[in-house]
Amino acid sequence: MKHIGSALWPKLRVLQLYGSNTNVGKTIFANVLCKAFGRELAKVHYLKPVSTGPLNEADDRHIHLYNPDVQSRCLYQFDEPVSPHIAARGSKQAISDSSIQAAIHKELQAYANAGKDAIALVETAGGVLSPAPSGSSQADLYRPLRLPVLLLGDHQLGGISGTISAWESLHIRGYDVQSVALFEGERFENHSYLKEYFAERNVHTFAIHPPPERKANEEDDVRSMRSYYEEISRNSDVTGFTQSFLQSHDQRIRDLRDMPEQADEAIWHPFMQHRERSKNTIVAMDSAYGDFFQTYSKQQELQQKGDGASQPPILRPAFDGSASWWTQGLGHGNPQLALAAAHAAGRYGHVMFAGAIHQPALSLAQTLIRGLGNPRLKKVFYTDNGSTGIEVAIKMALRASSLRKQWSSDDDILILGFTNSYHGDTIGTMDCSEPSVFNTKVEWYRGRGHWFDFPRVKLVEGRWLVDVPPELSAELGEARHLDSLEQVFDYNHREADRKLYTDYFNKQISALQNQGKKFGALILEPVLLGAGGMLFADPLFQTCLVDAVRQNTGSHSGQARDDHDWQGMPVIFDEVFTGIYRLGRFSAASFLGVQPDIVVNAKLLTGGLIPLATTTASQAIFDAFLSDEKSDALLHGHSYTAHAVGCGVANESLSTMKQLESSGSWNSFRSDWQPQASIGAAGEDGVWSMWTNAFVTSVSQHPLVDHVFALGSVLAISLKDPKGSGYSSTAAVSLRDRLFAEMGGEDWVIHSRVLGNVLYLMAAVTTSPETIRGVQEKVLGNLR
């Protein structure tokens, strides 16, 4: 399937004409610009994607009448003079936004392939927010192309407001508005006000004389308009704009080409050994929309140079395979999230949160407490990212444990967890993980805990496997196969495994307690350990550990007050990665059938737009910090705690995701994995993936693949490496590079990340089945 991206070619300059309203003179301005650009470039094209009204009044015909050398064309013409969304109802086939975008891109690509210095003027229909044939706004329809814009303002009564509103609508969607132009008007003088208004916002504005009154005789009228176009096209403001636009086009390309080299000099990238980086491998992101980045790299441009017959765009759409570092949920450039952010910014800006409250923060806290479905959880603490959210959770748990068990500050309090875990980069969260590549060379790292190795769930050669580490097989048994992914979570039919796991943990915890070790908290990533290598932990094993720590309370643990109080030690679920529908459910805890005392959420919380994290705790945890002493309080926070913009975006994000769930938007994915089940419109029943069952099975049978798994939006492919698996492996690098550099006439590529020998891919919760299938085809085609 085809995915189009930003339309940017070296020799073809494309300018989009937007009107702040209907009847502001878009086609008149287009004629003026066609003449002006025609004096500077070899070829001028005029493209009207959608037009309504009688054919003899069509805008492309008007252009041809006064500029016969201009190649003018309309892609979708409707005879009825009404809004496109109404006119399109009579069409024999639905005209989708994607089909219009593809048609425009194909037409522009043909212009670029001519190899001449040229310009294409793309004129929209109606105003900025006028409906497209599909019913979406034009501003959203054309956004994936991200064409530079000349906004045509309204010179009539009320036009100041309409022009400013149109500019804001484009600006908030990520368009670059090159200039604002409008007709002069002696009575209202809109142009004078708008020129000053936009000058303060660094947007150039100019005005031209309006066209002459229509003549009674058609021949005289044509002659009059020709004279008008010739005169105005030589106007200094018009020629100044055309020259400025051509210069800005060339500058945009220079900036893209220079960005990687400048970044190599100025940027310290995260999670990267910089000896592996060069200016040729740094990827410049011009923009992003939906599931795709718009990317440029030097290597990419060199690979695209062909035989000269085709002139590919400078920018290439790349499927965001890492969900933009696991944050992306509702598509890049989502206008609803952008509007939510703008509204909160306009209403609040930044308001301090100490001893205060604002509606976005209150609403979000209430939504989380309800949505997590955990009766233990009562209080929400706000931070800015996953690491600090976990840092707060650890402080909460250790205080509660120390207070109840009457430990002193001299006691060495440890954390219980899993091997290969990773909970963040702050010093405290690093100490919650075993020694690894992430922390062993950090000078303050101590590794204060005990970490259990665990059985992994894998799909190997088409069969689901619970793979037990060799050193645990004596107590946990050998590897065993299960009939399906759903059976992995069917604990009622896994009683033998439950007994083995329970006995193992009872024995291990008793031994640790007998050694005098003091554990202040259990912390785990439910189901899926992310940064540690995309490891699918047997969820029943995790469930049994939670049960064990709550039952093996020890002799100095104190008593729980009620069923919602913590027992043994506080249990923390790190759902920074796995929560908020990443695995197909609002809360990953629902897979385990046990509830934590503290849960941390981030990443998908705001749909990938803005940093925000929450640490939600039980009443008993909260009460551990209550006293008459200020020093007993949870003295943690930062200046942007519960930032109103982040909370506003999170409310919109969670509302949208909940609506997707309740409307049955994911039913096609669910039915692929649960063909015999009755799939309802709502609820969290069943286990499913956005990646098709057939594809995942096929990948698992590939000779280069050790194992694979898929759950929710996550796919992980572990490649065989004779040198051993793990974070230091490079086995997946070549596959990653092939997916990004794929040629052969392909119009889009895949941008992905690897963890050692594991290549992982994630979708947004809004990704279509068609896009998923396209990604799957590319993965299969490049597994070699």
Q: What does the model show?
A:
- The structure is a single chain.
- By secondary structure, this protein is α/β, with parallel strands linked by helices.
- The chain folds into two domains: 12-253, P-loop containing nucleotide triphosphate hydrolases (Rossmann fold), CATH 3.40.50; 335-660, Type I PLP-dependent aspartate aminotransferase-like (Major domain) (Aspartate Aminotransferase, domain 2).
- Helix content is 36%, strand content 19%.
- It is built from 26 helices and 27 strands.
- The strands form six sheets. Strands 3-2-4-1-5-6-7 form a seven-stranded parallel beta sheet, with helices on both faces. Strands 11-22-21-20-17-12-13 form a seven-stranded mixed beta sheet, with helices on both faces. The chain has a four-stranded mixed beta sheet with strand order 8-9-10-25.
- A hairpin with a 2-residue loop joins strand 23 and strand 24.
- Helix 13 runs parallel beside helix 22 (644-662) and helix 18 crosses helix 19 (539-551).
- The radius of gyration is 30 Å and the shape is elongated.
- Its main location: mitochondrion.
